[in-house]
Amino acid sequence: MAQLELALEHIDAQLRAYIEELKEWVRMPSISAGAQEDCCEALARAADFAVAQCEGIGLRARKVQVSPDTNPLVVACSASFAAGRPTVLIYGHYDVQGVDNPRSAWTNDPFGAAERDGYLLGRGASDNKGPCFAHLKAAQALHATGGLPVNLVMLIEGEEECGSRALSQFIAGGGLDEFGPIRGVVISDTSMYGPDRPSLTLGLRGILFFQMTVHGPKQDVHSGLFGGTIHNPNHLLVRALAALHDVEGRVRVPGFYDQVQPLSRREKTFYDALEVDEAAYCRNLGVKGLTGEPGYSLLERRWTRPTLAINHLSGGSPRTVIPARAAAVISCRLVPDQQPEPIETALQQYLRDQLPAGTEVEFGNSHHSPAYHLDPDHPLVPRALQAIRTGFGLEPLLTREGGSIPIVTQLHQRTGAPVLLVGLGQITDNWHGPDEHFNLRDFHRGIRTSAALLCALAEV
Amino acid sequence: MAQLELALEHIDAQLRAYIEELKEWVRMPSISAGAQEDCCEALARAADFAVAQCEGIGLRARKVQVSPDTNPLVVACSASFAAGRPTVLIYGHYDVQGVDNPRSAWTNDPFGAAERDGYLLGRGASDNKGPCFAHLKAAQALHATGGLPVNLVMLIEGEEECGSRALSQFIAGGGLDEFGPIRGVVISDTSMYGPDRPSLTLGLRGILFFQMTVHGPKQDVHSGLFGGTIHNPNHLLVRALAALHDVEGRVRVPGFYDQVQPLSRREKTFYDALEVDEAAYCRNLGVKGLTGEPGYSLLERRWTRPTLAINHLSGGSPRTVIPARAAAVISCRLVPDQQPEPIETALQQYLRDQLPAGTEVEFGNSHHSPAYHLDPDHPLVPRALQAIRTGFGLEPLLTREGGSIPIVTQLHQRTGAPVLLVGLGQITDNWHGPDEHFNLRDFHRGIRTSAALLCALAEV
Asked: What is the ipTM of this complex?
């Protein structure tokens, strides 16, 4: 533990310098989602910044151009892999969401990296440059105070906000094989349970996403001249979609819940013990009340139960037409043991079954990823909790999250290693929204946590 | 009848000149729907053209600026009203639809006014400059061959494609009162039953139009983080909308059909006798088959039965969101005796009733107009039929149409006069679509019909 103490002192002393460095990174408009052309240069600069940071820790770093139209993937690893020393993989991303959501809703420059009241303001500050940088600085502190205690692999991608295509191809193509067995994967791309409520996230829901299109006449036609004599795709679509849920919110698709296992008593105990401020939750969302699948708590609904949502509806135009087509985007959040493929098949068949014979229906833009779940009895869980305790000086919680990070599932499946999800941001940090911000106190405590975790993972 | 014969000869001799004049009008891009600023000048020119045409018949014509933001309304009338001579009102419009539907789908210049294979090509050729011009030329021919046999009022508006606001205000404000009693209103803004199938249209359906918005969280929120715990406006909207029709297509709103009278045996006989090519109808629309309210023929469904259509669906975005709101545009086609107001009330209440208590629902953008219907036993009907017979040399049909022209209802209600709907275009002329066109043979026969009709209406 002597090295960790030195490293923590180093971190405390260097914090101000770290923050100034992080601001440089946040100032780069490395937008990957709905990117304009002029973001290419910023994406390249943000990747170069990550390469330079990795090199500063003595890592061998490179930008990998997986295919001509993907953003560079930063891959870095210890210059030499010491035998008998475990290998740890840390993942983060340097790309950020756009800022037109809408741009006028921002009260500060999204790429100004201003500091106010202990927060760093700017797109990417919390998602994910700040948390990713915490790991880089922890590694640097260890590097500066005796060397890294583990073989380190850093994967910092530039497409998290637009599908992780390059990284996914890199992993699927065996890009990780050269690093040998991985003891643990560390990711800070989830959230803390709340302010001063650091947590280890045991699970993420999977996702199943597709678009459904119902076709009608060859073009939009006049509802007065032709309405009432041909099928209206809007009518067929709403009929099919309305059959997806019962009036209490349960999904009616046969087999949808078949593979869902009941939550273990152990995990249920953790989650039941978490404080939930339903009034604040409603206030934050601007809703008058809550709803959801009967028989489950708010957290169970968000974290442990599968859902089906109609995310997008489109059809026709606000004039008197019978439209040529109507479409919906549908997505499910899946829980452990649910396999996406059979659910997709059952769901699309069920939707077809609601429509008259001969209706032309098309399903497209499909993608899916199973849930990720870490057994709370896994031996690395207590080490991760101890690291959080050391870094934050607070008792960590065990949680899950309702969102999906397909790359987490893929990293887990490919390496067989547990993925330790140590969120440093807050659910209220406005990821993807205007005025994104990141608590610099959590940046500090996050660097400390990462240093402690790397030391903990080094122990055999 | 001597004058009519002279006028018909005059028309036949002048046809080529009439066509060249019409081309001038069609070349003016007098777009009123979704108009760009540079259409103002073209709208003004098209109105001036109409004024000049009216003056050429010896009418007193003026452009009326009903309010500062409306397009000029052309109002013209006989310089002196002869006592004991009936007054006839002819309505048309000089404004046209836009051409971005899409622009690339046009195979000719929308404002080139090219002539090909007996058709005049261009936006507005059939809707409504060509048919409107047929009446102007008929009046001119009568003016040139002994004078107009009736007191004539011409109303040529510039906002038919965007709501007829100025004309509606003009009529509601008593603008027609100075003309005294009107014997008949003549309008050619409907269609013939088919090629070489001239018809008198006995009815138009009314319309009820509104938008429904269901509100949810204050902004689009992440479906993984918040889905399954709050109401999804898309789900609520499709639930409400799916309840509007039964599986066979009948409207389920209580009272919707209460005021609908059965079609008279007389009219049913007319419509049952009309030939219907269902295969061509399907081919034209690009659908595999027909559907609709059980127990009614295709023409009854289109012309005599009320319908309810969901014209537009919108909600959320094609990403994993729970949307802040979801909206639908709903419109009904109403038949004679259906009053829009109670139906609107019942329909909106029914939609509310499908939603959980406390759901925030908003109805807006509402407008409506009752159906128009002319009794086939009205004494002017045989005169109109005879005029069509004279003009076309073909036996006319009695029909209805499924569309709605609110200004027709308003003109009828205000003047108490029958509106004689003598369509000169075809349903296949691509009104509002690309490559609009107008059969010049029907232009010719239309001018002749109009001259015959004015003479017929002059008879006491």
From this structure: 0.91
